[in-house]
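Following up on my earlier message about zinc ion. Here are the inputs again, as you asked, copied directly from the submission form:
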Amino acid sequence: MTSNNRPDQIEEVKNIFSAYLEKKDLRKTNERFHILEEIYSRHDHFEAESLYTDIRKKNFNISRATVYNTLELLISCDLIKKHQFGKNLAQYEKSYGYKQHDHIICVDCKKVVEFCDPRIQQIKSMMGELLNFKITHHSLNMYGVCGSCQKKREMEAASKKEVEVN
Ligand SMILES: [Zn+2]
Ligand SMILES: [Zn+2]
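Thanks, got it. Here's what our run produced:
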């Protein structure tokens, strides 16, 4: 997600999706393109269910099955990425034109933060060379407690102590 939106990006993305559907002999329905547009207008990591409710909220009539099915198609043509952060439900994000990045997830509030560190690229090429692998992709998730949840935990611990003292 790390990057700004270019106005012509949505057109490029639609062209890629359109070519993919043609190649696979699948129908180019309005619903499928609508879902793609909706995804490329957001800037977050989202669950399939919240994408579905957001589209429904905008009064666009669409079935849950179409949303799930279109997400799978978009993964296959590399326009979105699917993540499994811990035990949470799968989350998705747009991926076309976006820099490679990794994620840190708060175990308390489930917030997802992105980071980009060139040293990871170095590890990939070094390990690939060392172990004779052609590295195709990687996934790196870190888990921890975010700043505001740390404060919350401290406050909870402090109030517990108070109760114990009294
Ligand atoms: Zn991300
Ligand atoms: Zn948190």
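One observation from looking it over: The helical segments are 9-23, 30-40, 48-57, 64-76, 118-131, 147-165. Hope that helps, and feel free to reply on this thread.
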